[in-house]
Amino acid sequence: MVSIPSTKKLLEQEIDLNLAIHLFQNRLITLAKAARIANKPLTEFIQVLGSMGIDVVDYDPDELNRDLDSLSS
Questions:
Q1: What's CA 27's distance to the chain center, in Å?
Q2: For residues 20 and 45, is the Cβ–Cβ distance under 8 A?
Q3: How far apart are CA 41 and CA 52, in angstroms?
Q4: Backbone CA torsion sign across 15, 42, 25, 54
Q5: pTM for the predicted model, two decimal places
Q6: What are phi and psi of 7, to 5 degrees?
Q7: Can you tell me the distance from the alpha carbon of 69 to that of 7, in angstroms, rounded to the nearest whole number?
Q8: 73 and 67 Cβ atoms separated by less than 8 Å
């Protein structure tokens, strides 16, 4: 069963959060902008995304390996 926020303010907060998540997940806005839309500190927004299984960093594995190799050179 879906829980429905009991007040207009809670409903607006949920809408803002879900909008921010949707826009970030579809790469339409940055992580920082999404956190602002959600009215949450960046660290808290990252935790929300993590609890939902949404990756915060999208790093190609080959690119990551190249970057790590260049750091160790």
A1: 10
A2: yes
A3: 17
A4: negative
A5: 0.74
A6: -130, 160
A7: 53
A8: no
pLDDT digit of tens for each residue in the chain (73 aa)?
566 657 888 889 999 999 999 999 999 999 999 999 999 999 999 999 999 999 998 888 888 888 888 888 7
Contact 17, 48 (CB under 8 A): yes
Q: Which residue do the tokens 């949920």 mark?
A: 14
The DSSP secondary structure of the chain, one letter per residue, reads -----SSHHHHHHHHHHHHHHHHHHTTSS-HHHHHHHTT--HHHHHHHHHHTT--S----HHHHHHHHHHHH-
